[in-house]
Amino acid sequence: MNAAAALCSLDARFYTDPGIFAQEVRGLLARTWQFAGHAADIPDAGDYFTFGIADQTLFAIRGHDGVVRVFYNVCRHRAHELLQGRGNTRVVVCPYHQWSYELSGGLRGAPNSGSVPGFERQNIRLTEVRCEDFHGFLFVNLDRDATPMDAWFPGVREELAEFIPHIATLAPLEWVEAPEACNWKVSVENYSECYHCTANHRTFAEGVIRPETYQIRPAPDGYVLRHITECQSLDKMTYPVDLSANPRAGDYRSWFLWPMFSFQCYPGNVLNTYHWRAGGVDRCTVWRGWFTPGGAEDAVIRRLAAQDRDTTVAEDIRLVESVQRGLRSRGYVPGPLVLDPACGVMSEHSVARLQQWMREAVGG
Asked: I want to staple 288 with a disulfide (CB 3.0 to 4.6 A). Which of 17, 114, 150, 176 is the partner?
């Protein structure tokens, strides 16, 4: 690929070809760190929730030892799914033939297995998946040999603790679910630049952040994009901010963790998140998370979540779905990215980095 071609956006096939999406499911999405859920949702022994990554169904469960483990949601006997939704259980029992498993994954019992010569119960375990607790956020990687999250996203754990000093106390208050009729990469690219913000996100650009200070900085190493800006003047902010609370109270920061998650610190040290799930080549779902200490009710955060849902989230749905329709147009020819040497809000350096990772993921 020559230098001139590298400055252009990806071909439409990267977003519309079912074959490329299938490659991503088998490869990229199965070999990267993906958000599973929050540890606060399973506080007690036996608490569990199920979820999907790539084309696999998994469940997270807290053991009697307090450790959260993640397993493939499949019985080792004859492949029936074990759990549905969320709940609490003393043991994991397969609905099909009643094989039961300890919360730590070992086989506890199998009806009539005592009559089977050589049946070695102690050697049968559920298949476990790599899991990391990242400030209470649970991430999984289907690749058993994956390097730790701190190697993928250097410095992010420490920076989150700096910008959100109370992060260890936080739990989900609200999840806003947004189905989008587009390829997941269209949605991630839209999130990862603010070139479009002043024209399309008036509430965000005029009532939360100061666009003229906005920059998105690809990390020199690892797979993280950092969004950096200041809060809008207090008389224009759409919610109250106490700038004296701590040195970071007036800052906005976002850490996008490739390929499908972002932590955001809104002015006032408000933590919110995005995470994506790919449902097909031309559909995905985005969840917007809002957090408070212990998940306690907070009128300001509720109003902020509603404001964001009705403005930025709704505006982005229209944008990304229009892009997906455009990618199917015979008239679309990839144009050059705007790579301003000064970077800033009107540059697409972050999109160039994302598209580099996208090409690498499918060998394109």
From this structure: 176
CB atoms inside a 10 Å sphere around CB 112: 8
User: What's this model's pTM, rounded to 2 decimal places?
Assistant: 0.94
Please name the residue that has the structure tokens 């809104």.
266
pLDDT in tens, 119-178: 999 999 999 999 999 999 999 999 999 999 999 999 999 999 999 999 999 999 999 999
Q: Give residue 3's pLDDT band: very low, low, confident or very high (50, 70, 90).
A: very low
CATH of 34-141, one of 1.10.3720.10, 2.60.120.10, 2.102.10.10, 3.40.50.1980: 2.102.10.10
Count of CB atoms within 10 A of residue 230's CB?
15
The DSSP line for 42-65 is S-STTEEEEEEETTEEEEEEE-TT
Angle at 95 between CA 92 and CA 99, to 5 degrees: 55
Q: Which of 107-121, 314-328, 337-351 has the lowest mean pLDDT?
A: 337-351
What's the CA gap between 281 and 14, in Å, rounded?
9
Topology at the third CATH level for domain 3-25+159-362: Naphthalene 1,2-dioxygenase Alpha Subunit; Chain A, domain 1 (3.90.380)
Q: What is the pLDDT of residue 5?
A: 43
Q: Tell whether the model's pLDDT for residue 244 goes beyond 60.
A: yes
Provide the phi-psi class of 308: left if phi over 0, else alpha when psi is between -120 and 50, else beta. alpha
Block residue for tokens 């849902």: 309
Q: What is the pLDDT of residue 256?
A: 97
CA dist., res. 219 & res. 221, Å (int): 5
* 248 contacts: CB under 8 Å, gap ≥ 6: 162, 163, 265, 269
* Strand-pair category, 47-53 with 56-62: antiparallel
Sheet holding 100-101, edge to edge: 92-93, 100-101, 107-109
Q: Which amino acid is at 142?
A: L
Locate tokens 């932590």: which residue? 263
Instruction: Give the domain ranges of the chain.
Output: 3-25+159-362, 34-141
DSSP-assigned states of every residue in 80-99? -----SEEE-SSEE-TTT--
Q: Which pLDDT score, from 0 to 100, does residue 289 have? A: 98
